[in-house]
Structure formats: structure tokens, C-alpha cells
Amino acid sequence: MPKHIRLRKTCRHTLAEAVDALRSFLALVTSDKKVKKLSPSLAKLKKLNDEGLLDSYIVLAVPDKEIARDHAAYLDQNRDKCAGMWSNMF
Q1: H or E stretch at 17
Q2: Do the Cβ atoms of 67 and 15 come closer than 8 Å?
Q3: Cα–Cα distance for residue pair 85/57, rounded to 1 Å
């Protein structure tokens, strides 16, 4: 388990966990020789990850209620990155 994911007394899904899970999944899919072409949604996730914007996408575009709790702190530290994610999306 990555260092940035800490065990807690109460379980809460975090941005760090979501990013780690999607990156692990993308690594698995892209390394699979049987996969000839990614679906459009996976290709977009891969592009966001390659551009360092996957975490911004998760926290701004598809947060669940637990990840939304990370929004304010993330935005304070990554405002420029978030703006780049939106310009990349549209």
C-alpha cells in the first residue's frame, strides 16, 4: 500500500485512494497484450493520467461524497492544475 494512503480508525474513500486505484487499473490494462485498443472512456482517463490531471478530474468532475471532502484542500494546493484540467476537457 502506498505511503500516502494511511490506515484509519474509520473507513473513508479518499482522493489518494481513487487516484491510486485508477492508475493501477490503467497500468494493468495498458500492459495487457490482448488489449488492442482502449475504449474512448479509458483512453480519456489514460490521457488525463499521462498529463498529470487524473487527480483533478476525479476531485472536480466525478467525486463521490467522501472524495468531495478533499475538494477544498486539493483546490487550495492545485488551483492552476485544476484550471488546466478544465481547459483540456473542453
Answers
A1: helix 15-31
A2: yes
A3: 7
Specify whether the CB–CB gap between 54 and 10 falls below 8 A. no
* Tally of domains within the chain: 1
**Residue 45 backbone phi and psi in degrees, to 5:** -60, -40
Q: Tell whether 1 is covered by a domain.
A: no
Whether the model pTM is above 0.85: no
Q: What is the structure's pLDDT at 81?
A: 81
Mean per-residue pLDDT over the chain, rounded? 84
Q: Tell me, rounded to whole angstroms, the distance of Cα 59 from its chain centroid.
A: 8
Host domain of residue 32:
15-89
